[in-house]
Amino acid sequence: MDKLISILEEQDIEYEILEHREQINTAQEGADYFGIVIGQTAPTLILKTEKGFYALIVSGDYGRVNLDIIKELISVEQVKLASPKEVEQVTSSKIGSVSLVNPGIPTILDNQLNRYAFVYGGTGIPQTTLKIRPSDLERVNEIEGYIG
C-alpha cells in the first residue's frame, strides 16, 4: 500500500483509505457497508488479451461486461477475464482487493463513474478501500479507453 500512497501523494490526489474489519466481496456488500449507492463502488477487473493484461474499472451497477465492446475498443481478437492466479501475478493482490491504481497496466474506465463525486474500490490490500474522485483515477492510471 506504500506504493499506492506515494503515487497518490506525488500527484496531489485527494483520497481516503478506509479500513474495515470485514472483507468486502461484492459491489452490493461495499455499498451496504459504506452507506453509498451501488454505482459508487468501483471494482477493478483484470482482462487477458493477446496484447497482454488490461485493468477494467467499472461502476458497481454496470451489469454484465460485454467483452465484444472491449475487443473493439482496444483492437484485440480475444479478451477474457484473467484467472485468479494471473490476477495475483499481474497485480500482486487477490481478486476482490485489486487496486484502483495499477501503474504499468493499461486501464479502461467506465464513464458512469463520473456520476459521483467519489467512488470506492480496492487498494490491493484486503479490508481496506480507496475513496477517490473518478477524475483522479484518470490521472493516476494509463487510460486506454472508456466504456459506458
Would you kindly provide a written description of the structure presented here, covering whatever features stand out?
The structure is a single chain. The chain is α/β, with parallel strands linked by helices and about 150 residues long. It is built from 5 helices and 8 strands; from the N terminus they run H-E-H-E-E-H-E-H-E-E-E-H-E. It has helices at about 1-10, 25-35, 65-75, 85-90, 135-140; strands at about 15-20, 45-50, 50-55, 80, 105-110, 120, 130, 140-145. The protein has a 5-stranded mixed beta sheet with strand order 4-2-3-5-8, sandwiched between helices. It has a 3-stranded antiparallel beta sheet with strand order 1-7-6. Strand 6 (about 120) and strand 7 form a beta hairpin. The longest helix is centred in the N-terminal third of the chain and has 9 residues, at about 1-10. It is globular and about 40 Å long. The N and C termini lie far apart (about 30 Å). The mean pLDDT is about 95.
SSE string: HEHEEHEHEEEHE
Question: Whole-Å distance between the termini?
Answer: 29 Å
Helix content: 25-40%
* β-strand amount: 25-35%
What does the largest sheet look like?
A: 5 strands, mixed
Shape label: globular
Low-confidence stretches: none
Order of strands across the biggest sheet? 4-2-3-5-8
Integer-rounded radius of gyration? 14 Å
Instruction: Please identify the structural class as seen in this structure.
Output: alpha/beta
> How many extended strands?
8
Residue-averaged pLDDT: 95
Count of DSSP H/I helices: 5
